[in-house]
Amino acid sequence: MNPAQPKSSRSIWVWLISIFYLGFGVSGLMTVAMVLILLYRGGAGPEEVNSMKTLLQASLWGLLPAANIVGAVSLFLMRRIAFPIFTGLLAVRLTLPVFSGLSSLPGFSGTTTEMIGGYVLGYGILIAVCIYIYRLRQTGVLR
Question: What's the pTM value of the predicted model, to 2 decimals?
């Protein structure tokens, strides 16, 4: 950080991470709302209903998208709570397939190179974000 800048100014990485996870959380909550509306209005076949239920299970009925929003806002506000939120998200995302069975979650039923690459990229980004927030916390930037 440049000494001429005030301590409260946010780096470009804080902006990018906050915008990304805010958008990710909002789109996840919109998906959960759409699935709930479709499930309760009816008209979906049994396979579609099962697929929608596994999607809800994978998002923990909207808790993970909501945690993305809370984490993004707390990071943008430069709060220390951002680190536990993002590490909690990482822990849940790593353990969710183990506790619910790999084949029951979307994207884990088969193994293609694109899927594996997507998961590695997603987990890699989240791990990098956790490391970045940890360093912000250690240097006293987060309050």
Answer: 0.81
